[in-house]
Amino acid sequence: MSFLNDLYLTYEACKSDSQLLPIAHLTQNAQLEVVLDEEGKFSRASLVDKEDAVTVIPVTEDSGSRSGKAIFPHPLCDKLEYIAGDYGDFVPGSKGDKFEIYIAQLGAWVQSDYSLPQIRCVYGYLRERRLMEDLREAGFFTFENGRIKAEKQQGVALENWFVRFAVEVPGEPESRLYCDGQVFDSYIKYYLSSQDSRELCYVSGEAVPCSEKHPAKIRNTADKAKLISANDASGVLTFKGRFRESTQVASVGYEISQKAHSALRWLIARQGLKIGEQVFVVWSIENPHMPSPFSDLDWEEEEEVFTDAAYSDWVRQAIWGSAQAPQDSDTVMVMGVEAATTGRLSIPFYQKYGAKQFIQNVARWKTETCWLNQSKKVQAYVPWSPSLVEIVKLVAGEKNAKLNKCVRERLIPCIVEGRKLPYDIVLSALGQAVNPLHFKEHWEWCRAVTITCALLRKWQIERGDGREEYSMGLNAESEDRSYIFGQLLATAEMLERRALSMGSGSNKEGIRNTAAEKYFVRFQRYPVETWTTIRNQLHPYVMKLKNAGKLYYVNKLDELTCRLDLTRRDKLEPTFLQGYSSQLVEYRSSYKKQEDGKPEE
Q: In three state form, how does the secondary structure of 4-62 look?
């Protein structure tokens, strides 16, 4: 139950936020708004725009989780068939028991010590049983053979039209009851006062009114899955066989349950990372508005920064904020939820970490899985760490949901706990990145290369066996055979692309694959033989280049070739991809700085 306590404390710390729902309230999409005057007379009605449809409504424990044919009316706003006493006069075959239960429930609120004039206006008007007649006179319905035609609003059938109220009282600044804090407070006080029975709350350890039906709509307004539920009478999934009653398993105070679920709903809506059926949210009670470490963190500096220290400091500020450093007592919660069944919401991942250690782990991950990537914002190559979603997409694809889930669950501890990156994940990414013809768009392959280089860099740093670790920038002094072959391949590609860009029409740069890209897979396996093939195909492109560019690229090819032992026939190590990527970044960055389009010599 620790997660409920953490969510409850989060609610208490952030309850001043207007987006955080008050207890005993949910949201519902409304289709119709009815406006009454101060005497409770019908004034007008209007259809609700879809953009303004989300409405905060008071609910009971039963109505907040109603489904199927169960008759549990909401206390104030509800469907037409609940609130219109004359609904059966216009829609033959409908039953009037829904209205009777609704009006009796609303009457109990009106007669309590917590009633308000606005609520009494709504109650007095609805008791007259003429809502449908007033709507008809206002022109909302068309008839066919004496019956209302099947009309829909926002794809919702007439019987499911949801109605909200406004009462225009002189001197009152807010007429919309669904936006009036007085109405919220009135209902909360009334509803809490009506709860008499008390049981031990497993979260607070106190005897308080407890919930039997906990809120749904956690991930979105249409979500039926619940975190806590004990309504399976068959005994297959719940407490039967070991306990007599569900309360013997666990009982949670009503107020704590409402606030905890409301906080989780609010956190997911604000900063949750939704991946299929799974949702991950990261927050701290001291700093609840933390961005997810599993998402992209956009580098927005105007200057290129290549040092790990600068990028690491920026990551820390991006996650925690630059206002103050986390204290020793601060904690960070990481929670993942997914639908086990249509009505059950499971928590496959929940951990609490010291904020300092958490920020340190995430900053280390973001810094070590970092590679230079072209930023559209600053028009330059800047440090970039791939998000969890992009890594999983590259490694596991998009079609196999189970494989995606498995890879995610293995990567999350690497990010938040500092565990080592599994090498099989690196190899899977490498297998995709060395096959450019597998990708539909050229930019998709470029992104795959960047992600794989970032993962390789992380693995090299963690390996710690004394071998060379490659920085984000080009290591021109590297003696690694595979790295130099990667530089050679990048030079061949850049040469051909520069020659193609000098043409016109269909020969513009980026229209077709270069020889380097066509032979990419084979080059890794048989570098010497494949390089001979590629070099022979470069001759017409060398001749097409201008004198300065021709001299630069030919000299570069000769320089790199002289540093290689071409008698070796073994395949290349994964580091060839880093040499290839770093050399391309160097060429493109240098080319952009030259007005005449020639690389720096």
A: HHHHHHHHHHHCCCCCCCCCCEEEEECCEEEEEECCCCEEEEEECCHHHCEEEEECCCC
Place of tokens 């993962």: 455
Which CB contacts under 8 angstroms, 24+ apart, belong to 90-99?
Answer: 90/132, 90/136, 90/141, 90/147, 90/148, 91/147, 91/148, 91/158, 91/159, 92/147, 94/159, 97/71, 98/71, 98/73, 99/129
C-alpha–C-alpha distance, residues 251 and 229, integer Å: 11
Long-range contacts of 58-62 (CB under 8 A, 24+ apart): 58/24, 58/25, 58/183, 58/184, 58/187, 58/191, 59/24, 59/25, 59/26, 60/24, 60/105, 60/191, 61/211, 61/212, 61/213, 61/254, 62/213
CB 48 within 8 A of CB 214: no
Alpha helices in 208-307 (DSSP H): 254-271
**Exposure b/e, 496-514, CB count within 10 A at least 16 = b:** bbbbbeeeeeeeeeeeebb
In 3D, which of 551, 541, 474 has the Cα closest to residue 514? 541
pLDDT in tens, 528-573: 999 999 999 998 888 888 776 788 889 999 999 999 988 888 999 9
Instruction: Look at residues 300, 298, 285 and name the one whose alpha carbon lies nearest to residue 333.
Output: 285
Digit-coded pLDDT (tens) for 197-236: 888 888 988 899 888 888 888 888 778 888 887 765 555 5
Burial of 547 (0-12, 13-18, 19+ CB in 10 A): exposed
Indicate the pairing of strand 25-29 with strand 32-37: unpaired
Residue 337's φ and ψ, nearest 5 degrees, are -125, 150
H or E element, residue 167: strand 162-168
Q: Indicate the pTM of the whole model.
A: 0.83
Residue found by looking up tokens 């290591």 in the block:
475
